[in-house]
């Protein structure tokens, strides 16, 4: 599996500006809605916040993988973002998150959704990937990095 198969280059955001968990989720869902006008950004945000209420998706090592399912979607939407200053995402290791993989999936695509989450989990365990991700100069460099894995 390759993440770039599901990734719109316009949804690689190298400089997220938000400073709180809810703000970063709003910033990311807003970017998705700008690319997918049919998507209800408020509903997507609500789904993500509900998921966060079950337990944080800030998995540690500076990484968060917010995800959720929307009945109106027909395809998986993946957004990759980076915060240069870090965001308190209530991560399991209590450290700020700088690397974000947001996954929105149709309700009927559970298998692919889980495979994408598993692939992201494997990627971010790689110290050199996380370092290269954080050091990438811009969205093009981030995209090339994601295409190389």
SSE run: EHHEEEEEHHH
- Classified in CATH, the superfamily is Mannitol-specific EII, Chain A
Tell me the helix content: 40-55%
Query: Whole-Å distance between the termini?
Result: 9 Å
- Tally the beta strands: 6
Uncertain runs? none
CATH topology: the name is Mannitol-specific EII, Chain A
What class do helices, strands and sheet pairing give? alpha/beta
Please, how many domains?
Answer: 1
The tally of helices reads 5
Radius of gyration (Å): 14 Å
Q: Biggest β-sheet: count, sense, barrel? A: 6 strands, mixed
CATH architecture: 3-Layer(aba) Sandwich
Q: What is the name of the CATH class? A: Alpha Beta
In what range is the share of β-strand residues? 15-25%
Would you kindly provide a written description of the structure presented here, covering whatever features stand out?
- It is a single chain.
- It is built from five helices and six strands, in the order βααβββββααα.
- Strands 1, 2, 3, 4, 5 and 6 form a six-stranded mixed sheet that branches.
- It is an alpha/beta fold and 149 residues long.
């Amino acid at each position: 599996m390759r993440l770039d198969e599901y990734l719109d280059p316009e949804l690689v955001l190298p400089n997220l500006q938000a400073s709180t968990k809810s703000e970063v989720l709003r910033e990311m869902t807003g970017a998705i809605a700008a690319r997918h006008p049919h998507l209800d950004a408020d509903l997507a945000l609500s789904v993500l916040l509900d998921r966060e209420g079950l337990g944080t998706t800030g998995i540690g090592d500076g990484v968060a993988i917010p995800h959720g399912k929307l009945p109106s979607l027909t395809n998986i939407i993946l957004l990759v973002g980076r915060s240069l200053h870090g965001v308190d995402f209530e991560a399991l290791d209590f450290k700020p998150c700088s690397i974000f993989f947001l996954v929105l999936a149709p309700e009927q695509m559970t298998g692919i959704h889980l495979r994408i989450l598993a692939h992201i989990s494997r990627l971010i365990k790689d110290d050199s990937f996380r370092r290269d991700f954080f050091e990438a100069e811009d969205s093009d460099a981030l995209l090339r990095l994601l295409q190389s894995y």
